[in-house]
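Below is one such record:
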Amino acid sequence: MNSLLPGGPEATSIVRGELRDQRFQLPAGVSEVDFDRARLTNVDFTGTRLRCFVARGSAFDGCDFSGAGFEQLLMGIPDPGRERERLTWPQTVFRDCTFRRTRFAEQTFFGNVRFERCVFDRSRLRQHTFTCEAEFVDCVFIGRVRDMNFWGRPHDHDRAALGRDHNDFTGNDFTAAELDGVSFNHIDLRAQRFPGLPGYALLDRIAERVRAVLPLVDGWPDDKHRQEARFALEFLADSAHVRNDDQALVTPASMGRKLPPALREELFAAFRRTSSDTSRG
């Protein structure tokens, strides 16, 4: 069931009720849509271009967003008028949905949203930091994921409205993904699958490893390189200790992005040798 709020060229289509087994269509001239406690099953969004996509308390099952593009994307937003109090915050769920070459808006607001068994295949996932309430379970990531945060805990001040003190983040498959500047916070890294490539390593005892490789760094002749490596290693150790029980997904870039490639690889190899690799598969 659709209704239309007037507003000239930026009129918003309000979608409530159920849609099933059909192509999603908007009225002519409308490029904004607000899904308010809607239920969509096997709805085809392929190639859709929207200025604004908003969802609150809605469910999308088996929907295909391949080739879709969004200028503004607000997923799992609070109820209207509750943004400050957030007395309740309904969850939006995407289940068995496909996002293939989907153009996610930069700085997408994920909000209280849950993805189950979804496929993100070469989608534009980059510069997403508003993800503190998002959940990902058994999802598959293919292609480049850049500058994105994943969180196992929501903000303290949102927990009452969400009705939970942790975000589910388990069973996700990153084996075909290229991770660049991706951060995992308060997440069991061993419960995910990561690229089994030489450039990635899921490692434990990060603080111990840092102490073990510092003599190597201190032996480098260039003070600028020593400082860059020390800063990167200290940041890595602090982050792993605070966020992931002294574990981290480590790459050569973790050793210091400004280091010459040869030094990054040398330090990364030494870092891995200090104790066992804890990655699964």
